[in-house]
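Chain A, query sequence.
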Amino acid sequence: MSTVVRIDPTLCRGHAICALFFPGGVELDAWGFGRVVEPRPVARRTVRRALRAAAACPNGAVVVYDDRDGVGASGATPIGTL
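Chain A, predicted structure.
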């Protein structure tokens, strides 16, 4: 299974909670808005952290996708939005 994390910049409000739960995968800009460090598949050992970041985001900006076919977010199945 290939897992990809995306942060929707239109939904992000700069709470910075994602960086607390997924510190290696999310970095913050000067105003606290998150972005994915490297938009590539997440290692298996960090998927749980990514899912926690998605669950903790109050605006639902962090989404974890199951990208088995390698088609990207457009055709991938979201597995971590709450």
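DSSP finds two helices and five strands in the chain. Strands lie at 3-7, 26-28, 34-36, 62-66, 77-78.
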